Protein 1
Amino acid sequence: MDKKSEHFFNCPLPYENPGIISIAHGGGGKKSRELIEKVFIPAFGNEYLEKMHDGAVVPIPGRRAALTTDSYVIDPHFFPGGDIGSLSIHGTVNDILMCGAEPLYISLAFIIEEGFDFNSLAKICVSIKEAADNAGVKIVTGDTKVVEKGKCDKIFINTTGLGAIRPGINISADNITAGDKIIITGSIGDHTAAVLSAREKFNFESDITSDSAPLTKLILPLIDNCGRIKMMRDPTRGGLSSVLNEIVTDKTFGISIEEKSVPVKQQVNAIFEILGLDPFYAANEGKAVIFVSSASADKALEILKQNKNGKDAAIIGEVTENHPGKVVLHTQYGTNRILDMLSGEQLPRIC
Amino acid sequence: MDKKSEHFFNCPLPYENPGIISIAHGGGGKKSRELIEKVFIPAFGNEYLEKMHDGAVVPIPGRRAALTTDSYVIDPHFFPGGDIGSLSIHGTVNDILMCGAEPLYISLAFIIEEGFDFNSLAKICVSIKEAADNAGVKIVTGDTKVVEKGKCDKIFINTTGLGAIRPGINISADNITAGDKIIITGSIGDHTAAVLSAREKFNFESDITSDSAPLTKLILPLIDNCGRIKMMRDPTRGGLSSVLNEIVTDKTFGISIEEKSVPVKQQVNAIFEILGLDPFYAANEGKAVIFVSSASADKALEILKQNKNGKDAAIIGEVTENHPGKVVLHTQYGTNRILDMLSGEQLPRIC
């Protein structure tokens, strides 16, 4: 047992078998309540969660909210730079930010396989709490279901996030016009490379860690100080290429990307070359793609670079009247190729 | 294929195998987008969902919101009176209502097993849409993950609900005082009995259907017209007994329940007797337990009985200064027994 999860076991857990989760922990009775009182409340406790009602009653500043949901089924649950717990906070917090909103509240729902070990659950809870604190959000309500052995893969987590839209903000692909600059906030592919390195069947060593991080302190200052941000997306599943394609599809503009401007770590590139993967389709969990007017691009970069999660931010391309509906990559060899949306199977369960 | 799901197949689905869900449907690329564009948008489409951003930007009336989450892992997925789709709306909508809020928005997250049949997904989506319309909520954002065959049990659904707290409302166990009346809005145990009858291993016939229903039109008029509602909970997992125990634990008051006043259908009782189950611990999905002052009880009953989901509403007991922290049942035989919280295993995957 590691130090961080030790404090959960200072309060004695009166289970017949304290080591594993049983069906009764999801049954709505005494054991469910024990799990809530002895683990979840000590881990996440705040004035909203502690009411232990069917839901949380929370104050909302302003008249517009952002609501976003994601389930996390990543395999393995622990990987260099994070785990399913921290990822389930970072991913959802970043989706709220991409709406132009300040992340405030998170709902947390576990689906756990009967027999899952308690120590892993405790570690995941510690990780969730740390991530939530770093991201500036509170876990205000939750749910736990336990299914029979073999009916899920250890643990799945759903988080849903609620945020308050910053006044005057309107993030939409409809804002984009030719000439706009496209910024990526850092290197691509780190998350995929880190998760692959944690999978047993890939037998390689690397010190690549996932970029999984909450972008609260990167994005809120940008929104507040850079004037008009036109569009933002985080390039998770499907990668940079899929996000750009989602934005450009059916539009009257096209997107041009300079390959040499897109930051990719050497080690990540090496792993991807060995495995025959393309970093443009790899998942990221602590990056944003940002569309700003040409006039605001330098200011945006300056603000982003002040935060550790934006120190490698770069302008990687621009919006063009040419090739409407398409993303064209100008390769470092001087050729052009169309970056299409991810087709067919990607690496499953990367998030 | 039934009539209701036929319309999904009027737009041709360009899958190599249109009959099943593949890993790529959760990959974030072309197939994910197809699933969204050809199934989810036609099924649930509204002005918020159609933005297809990372999250939904929604207007919030008022300054307080209710946030509530539940995952649905019910087995089997289709049962008399509902399915996992309608249940995932009703359960979450009712939790919002129990906070004293008007349900407005739902986030919808699927975890699907590779190979799940498309027709079942379409049927579930039709059911979700109908339930959402009946409940007065919009599906505004969502997520789909697909895991490898054998890594989940066909389909799990998480819904998170967002509602606007009615002005002046404060639903809390702290409001409860001795003398308050306790109302149940209808018969207990119907959902559990219906789900058991759908499980193949129980070989009995019955025409019992689940009570799964949205309580929007039952509860909002009550909140708006009955004066002060002190506390509400829906007796789902763990049943009526567990809900009453959650309310009374560590309190200075006790709860007395008259067994003969608690509505249980004859057929439900018969099934429970055969299986050795107790209706007080059975899950309900369209019922509420309501605490009101003695002076407001008749008015509350009158309002509830005007709605089909409240026609069998009854005062089943009261709050007492006796036996603080305990729920005592006055049985129909004139004896008293303590109704404890559900202990040990209940029927798994009832919701």
Protein 2
Amino acid sequence: MENFSFHSPTYFAFGRGKEEKTGEYVKQFGGTKVLIHYGGGSVLRSGLMDRVKKSLEKEGISYIELGGVKPNPRSGLVYQGIQLCKEEGVDFILAIGGGSSIDSAKAIAAGAVYDGDFWDFYEGKVVKKALKIGTVLTIAAAGSEGSPDSVITREEGMLKRGASGGALRPVFSVMNPELTMTLPAYQTSCGITDIMAHIMERYFTNTKDVEFTDRLCEATLLTLIKEAPKVLIDPKDYEARANIMWAGMVAHNNLLGVGREQDWASHGIEHELSALYDCAHGAGLAVIFPAWMKYVYRHDVSRFAQFAVRVWGCEMDFANPEATALEGIARFESFLTSINMPVNFRQLGAKEEDIPKMAENMKLGNGTCGNFVKLTTKDVEKIYQLAL
Amino acid sequence: MENFSFHSPTYFAFGRGKEEKTGEYVKQFGGTKVLIHYGGGSVLRSGLMDRVKKSLEKEGISYIELGGVKPNPRSGLVYQGIQLCKEEGVDFILAIGGGSSIDSAKAIAAGAVYDGDFWDFYEGKVVKKALKIGTVLTIAAAGSEGSPDSVITREEGMLKRGASGGALRPVFSVMNPELTMTLPAYQTSCGITDIMAHIMERYFTNTKDVEFTDRLCEATLLTLIKEAPKVLIDPKDYEARANIMWAGMVAHNNLLGVGREQDWASHGIEHELSALYDCAHGAGLAVIFPAWMKYVYRHDVSRFAQFAVRVWGCEMDFANPEATALEGIARFESFLTSINMPVNFRQLGAKEEDIPKMAENMKLGNGTCGNFVKLTTKDVEKIYQLAL
């Protein structure tokens, strides 16, 4: 196990009706002038926006609004938000929505107290200072409600890049599973896939003796495998929604990744897919992750066999561990299909001829991505090929 | 699942050598005048105290000391600490040691900013204000390094009682598994038992649909069952010590208990044992928990069968789930014996004739303790009897 620091100071308010206390939380964490940042009409149509505004008004907190966040959130709106915050003296950003709204809010929060171009943070500069951020989560997926990360796409060149830093962790997150009940089945499945991917990026590691975090990863995956079919059968199954929503946070606040080298190649490889085709991140991950597994599993057959046995209930083939490893990957792929996720380029609508461009866009040069197996541009091309 | 809040803001610095940065952490969290609070000679003999002092001096932080914390920490020393803090203008309490030193430090931290008797908090008053607390942990057991709880014994009547409140969560905890390597085997096993008990107090619940927290509880128990024998064979097994130490924190920062009714009867029943005989809390729990299980398992045979199958690897007897439930309890008891814990009064040195007095000391009156099954004084007596 490697040395680590773990700091997850976000206050999580979980359960029915908690959004009605949003104003209290903003006040508790010192917000006085709020920018409400959100996406499209569902937040308005559902009445959620009204409930949140009412709770702010009850506490005497003033606010302005900036809607229009798109999936794979863009830098254009971020610049707009930063300018707005500076002009209006905003001291607190409240994101309502899923990962896109929260990530966009984080970019604004960092840019509003920075003299340079906020994109610097998405080129590697660590975020040490930002306006305070609160969230009202409506999609179980990105885990951004408890993470120090943000991903933004720059229109110029359609570059999708991530920023990170403790200052980006929300001070509070409101998590009411009821708010996720109206999410379409496809988006629900994309979210579940994203959560699983966050766990697997941490699970496949070369660090030895991380039994505890292994077990926590497996526990979270087992939960998702059991609860996912329930919400597809009954989108209003509160209990299943609740288990998935909380798992989505735990999967990405890094409790499951401490003390170990993490991989994150599949996320990078997927980002080029969603940047180019504007597909849902979760759907792209469903296409990339099984292909990545098929490409790298020989690097550590035992770990993939453990994944197969403990997560997918495969019986260990002691005479042929590789068969067990492959069975685990196959069951994972079957699971993705069972929740109506695409598992190849054709199903996603991606094109073979774009492969060299996407691999090139990762800008690995002579370098590599990933840690479990270090992948060159050539390797990345082969993984895209395996996903055709 | 029930509504809940989760807030675990402690900064955890985990791994080799981290104690040498204690001064930096104190500074980071605003401490300027520190009371170092600790137990006996091992902290001095090992050189740990010197390393911590050096790190404080390096940051120009002044400190005073108060040693002498005993297992099952007493109110007498707490009063002394409170007076010292008030006289010397202390603004930060640094506990070095295990749960006893940390719990005593928490009591001092609360009492130092309170006009009344600190014992009020141990009679039910919630702690809302306290001096900041940091810890350098040397025993994996109590989980006090990440919890908002403290347990103190009042000499008068030997009453052992708990206090709680967000202000009691340490702002940072240094966790270096090497510091636990010199712990005697018996204390190591007591710690492991205490950690398991913290999980099981949360696991046995009447709240339905808590699949995710169930899985996290099981993951943590599975880790302890696998790692415990390793440290008894080789006390210097860093990796096993590390997995156990981190599991001890996760077991008690309440991640494993959110959204569900928790039990805590066994802790209450045990507290009378350790208050009367001054035995180790973990040893007392090893005696009480199997007896509690035998007394209550019929209340929810399915849950005990799940415990048996998922945690103890029992095969489910579908024709006779009760047999599976009982097998799980038996395996738990065997495990405790395998790590040299006492599992009955005789082995602990407790006396049958003290049972009525201990049950009476819980002061249940016409009330009950526990939630999984609500236990009267008569029930508690029967559980003690089952542990003879």
